[in-house]
Design goal:
Blueprint lengths: L7 E8 L2 E8 L4 H8 L18 E4 L2 E4 L12 E3 L12 H8 L9 H16 L21 H7 L10 H23 L1
Parallel strand pairs: 1-5
Antiparallel strand pairs: 1-2, 3-4, 3-5
Helix pairs in contact: 2-5, 3-5
Pfam families: Fer2, Fer2_2
Keywords: Iron, Metal-binding, Oxidoreductase
Protein name: (2Fe-2S)-binding protein
Length: 187
C-alpha cells in the first residue's frame, strides 16, 4: 500500500516585496498564513466567509479577500498587505486621506478598506466599469469617480461603525492625488 500523500507543503510567498518560506497545510488560507505563521496581523479576520472585506489585500495588484484564498495558491504572486502600503514613514495618499478625513472609527475594517481603495483607484484609472457606470463602451473612457461610483466599487467592504461618508470622501481625495501624480509622470 502506498503511503498517504502529505497534506503539507513548503511554500514561498512574496509579501510586500519580501520572500517568506513556510510549511503550510494545504487547507491554510492566506489570511491564516499571514496572521498565524508570519505575524503580519494588519490584515484582519472579520467574517471568515468573504462577506465583510476586512481581510482584503492585493494580489498582483488586484483586490482579494484573503480568507477565501488558499496560501498554496498565492505562491509566486505579489501580495501587498496593509503593512506594505506606506513607503517607510511616508503614508500612501490613500492612508493619508483616511487619516485626514476620518475614514475610520474603530479602525478594524480600515486595513481592508485601504487595500480595497487602492484596487478601486487602479481599476477606475484603467477604465474598468462598475455596476453603476452609465456608458461601458471602452471609447467612453473612465466615468467620473463620483460618490455613487465609489460606493458601488467599495461595496464589498463593510464598516460596522458606519464611517461610509468619510470613506467615500477619502477614496475621492486619494483618487485626485493619484490622477495628479499620473499627470505629472506623463508630462
Amino acid at each position: 500500500m502506498a503511503p498517504a500523500p502529505s497534506t503539507y507543503s513548503a511554500i514561498t510567498l512574496n509579501i510586500n516585496g519580501e520572500k517568506y518560506t513556510l510549511p503550510v497545510d494545504h487547507r491554510t488560507t492566506l489570511l491564516d498564513a499571514l496572521r498565524e505563521h508570519l505575524d503580519l496581523t494588519g490584515t484582519k479576520k472579520g467574517c471568515d466567509q468573504g462577506q465583510c472585506g476586512a481581510c482584503t489585500l492585493l494580489i498582483d495588484g488586484r483586490r482579494a479577500v484573503s480568507c477565501l484564498q488558499l496560501a498554496v495558491a498565492a505562491e509566486g504572486r505579489d501580495i501587498t498587505t496593509i503593512e506594505g502600503v506606506a513607503e517607510g514613514e511616508q503614508l500612501h495618499p490613500v492612508q493619508q486621506a483616511f487619516l485626514d478625513l476620518d475614514g475610520y472609527q474603530c479602525g478594524y475594517c480600515t486595513p481592508g478598506q485601504i487595500c480595497s481603495a487602492l484596487g478601486v483607484i487602479e481599476e477606475h484609472a484603467a477604465g474598468w466599469p462598475s455596476a453603476v457606470t452609465d456608458d461601458v463602451r471602452p471609447e467612453a473612457g473612465p466615468p467620473p469617480l463620483s460618490a455613487e461610483e465609489i460606493r458601488e466599487r467599495m461595496s464589498g467592504n463593510l464598516c460596522r461603525c458606519g464611517a461610509y461618508v468619510s470613506i467615500v470622501q477619502a477614496v475621492a481625495q486619494a483618487a485626485e492625488v493619484h490622477t495628479a501624480e499620473a499627470g505629472e509622470t506623463a508630462a
